[in-house]
Design goal:
Number of strands of chain A: 2
Largest sheet of chain A: 2 strands, antiparallel
Number of helices of chain A: 6
Order of helices and strands of chain A: HHHHEEHH
CATH topology of chain A: Arc Repressor Mutant, subunit A
Strand content of chain A: 5-15%
Shape of chain A: globular
Strand order of the largest sheet of chain A: 1-2
Oligomer: homodimer
Number of domains of chain A: 1
DNA sequence: TATTATTGATACGTATTACGAACCATGTCA
DNA sequence: TGACATGGTTCGTAATACGTATCAATAATA
């Protein structure tokens, strides 16, 4: 876009392009199961957590009303369930049902299947290198 | 998720997590300008291209009716414009208006601004390395 | 050439996603 | 106890996305 992007600018452009491509893949897999990106994120989070509604909304950067609808529809489909929180009578815990957990496993397997041929283009040591660099980026993000 | 994910699986997980984080950033910046992720992608594509409606839809993996609505709303906001294609009387070309191009510039600047502190966590040579690895991934994608 | 088929785009109806505003129930604190 | 804060849901509205249907222009074929 600029006539002479700096190496830093070029890296950020590439990161964004990579993300758009990756999200397109995730989106396509989700669409096969009638899942939006938001719902996929929700299911992913619920894999090893049992948050309350507001925590979930904050984590995804959504309003709690949005989460209400999202969870209500997912519950109707039998993917998640709600239960009153033990400690706080106002709060509602959300968690995966067995069917939901099965679906998450399947989604992950499909994602792996789709992405594997792409990352196979890199040697094992390059993969290792890339993994480490990305991991460092992710860790840097939060203080 | 698995007890012992292979290095390949770990890399794919990390790539997906990175993408979700990046998309969250892009989404937030877009929201400040009332832009959906889809519309951001459209504007990005139009930066250096003048496709017809169907090309645009195929590129984004959307149906053409979806593109009609998306472009109609963007046109009403003065970001893009439509013109009949010279060669094919049925086709409609889409392109950025000046205001649209300005917006794309601004979005890119904001993205750079937000991402810079994150990638600054890596040394210049690590950034260079990461850029090259991601670029190779992207190039591998299409035959 | 006339007819049929295909292509490019739009219009309509519907479901999902997302938000703001308003609303209850439960907790907290002065 | 009363005032306020917190956690969730409901309601209304806009954008996004799709399937179906439709219309105009082009291409293909008899």
């Amino acid at each position: 876009m600029s006539q002479q992007p700096s190496p830093q600018e070029a890296l950020i452009d590439t990161l964004m392009t990579t993300s758009f491509v990756t999200m397109a893949i995730i989106n396509r897999i989700g669409a096969e199961h009638d899942l939006s990106l938001s719902l996929i994120r929700v299911l992913g989070i619920l894999w090893d957590r049992r948050p309350r509604m507001t925590e979930l909304a904050e984590y995804l950067g959504l309003e709690k009303q949005t989460m209400s609808g999202l969870i209500a529809r997912a519950e109707k489909r039998g993917l998640v369930a709600r239960a009153p929180n033990e400690e706080d009578g106002r709060a509602t815990d959300v968690f995966l049902t067995k069917a939901g957990a099965e679906l998450v496993k399947q989604l992950r397997a499909q994602g792996q299947e789709t992405m594997t041929p792409i990352i196979k283009q890199l040697s094992a040591s390059d993969q290792q290198q890339l993994h480490e660099l990305l991991q460092r980026l992710l860790n840097a993000r939060e203080p």
